[in-house]
Amino acid sequence: MQQLFGIFIVLGAVFGGFLIMGGTFSLIWQPVELLIIVGAALGSLVLGNPRHVLAELVGQVRRVFVRSRPGAENEMERQLLLAMYELLQLGRDLKALDEHVEAPQQSPIFQRYPLVLESPRVLAFIVDNFRMMALGRITAHELEGVLEQELEAIHRDLEQPSKSMRKIGDAMPGFGIVAAVLGVVMAMNIVADGATSGEIAAKVAAAMIGTFLGVFLCYGVLDPLSNVISQVVKDEVAELECIKVVLVAYAAGKPPLLALDAGRRLMPVNSKPSFVQLEGWINRLDEGTA
């Protein structure tokens, strides 16, 4: 909703100001110029990125505009922490963990936390690393090193779509100039056909819309969109960082509650629960289990 409101402000300020100056939308609407600019941008995006980066970009843009109900972020953090708590309660019992990490979709623990099940990357990170901890003896220092490298690789992959979008955004003024130059070429071409000064002026004005669209799409659409995608990625990586810290603290010998508190501190500020909230969630879970 916030992003849609921001787009409304940008469009209202730019095109509303143009109307106040006496302009009309018919002057701005140049579909051929728009086709050249947007088509060149999309083509460059497809040309310069592998398929999995494009698929991730589509998913990240969807997450920006398709928001969950209010409070969903805090609910995700609650379910994540409680799922980790229940798994930590099983300790290093390989037989007990097998039931949950080998088939998480059928696990009674994970079924109680649907938001975790619906997050493939978070679910895979939990399952893989609990399986690793259960299968062999690994020190907290070794575990931290392994998880740090994995997180760096994940973060690098998740950041690639926003970087690609930012590069395309930076290129939009150039694509706008390309469209404008082609428009000027067409304007000069009609001079030879005996066009009037008014007709030439109309063609040149239409060509200049290409420059306007390139600059507008760069600074008014793609640059802020790539920035908000980066924020979405940071929040997602913060959840994985939370899991990493919980597992490392538990491997170092901390009890489950203290291990969870260590991970809680790395959650995004807007959805980070307090220690009192965390303790209350765990107490209610223990009472329900009892």
Structure commentary:
- With 290 residues, the chain is an all-alpha fold.
- It is built from 13 helices and no strands.
- It is elongated, with a radius of gyration of 26 Å.
- The mean pLDDT is 86.
Brief synopsis:
This protein has 290 residues and is mainly alpha-helical. The chain contains 13 helices and no strands.
List keywords for this structure.
290 residues, 13 helices, 82% helix, mainly alpha
In total, the number of domains comes to 1
Count of alpha/pi helices: 13
The low-confidence parts are none
Portion in strands: under 5%
* Helix proportion range: over 70%
Major sheet attributes:
none
Radius of gyration: 26 Å
> How is the quaternary structure best described?
single chain
Q: How much is the average pLDDT?
A: 86
Number of strand elements = 0
Q: N-to-C terminal Cα separation, in Å?
A: 41 Å
Secondary structure layout:
Elements: H1 2-20, H2 25-28, H3 31-48, H4 51-65, H5 72-89, H6 94-101, H7 108-111, H8 114-117, H9 120-135, H10 140-191, H11 197-251, H12 256-264, H13 275-289
Helix pairs in contact: 3-10, 4-10, 4-11, 5-11, 5-12, 5-13, 6-9, 9-11, 10-11, 11-12, 12-13
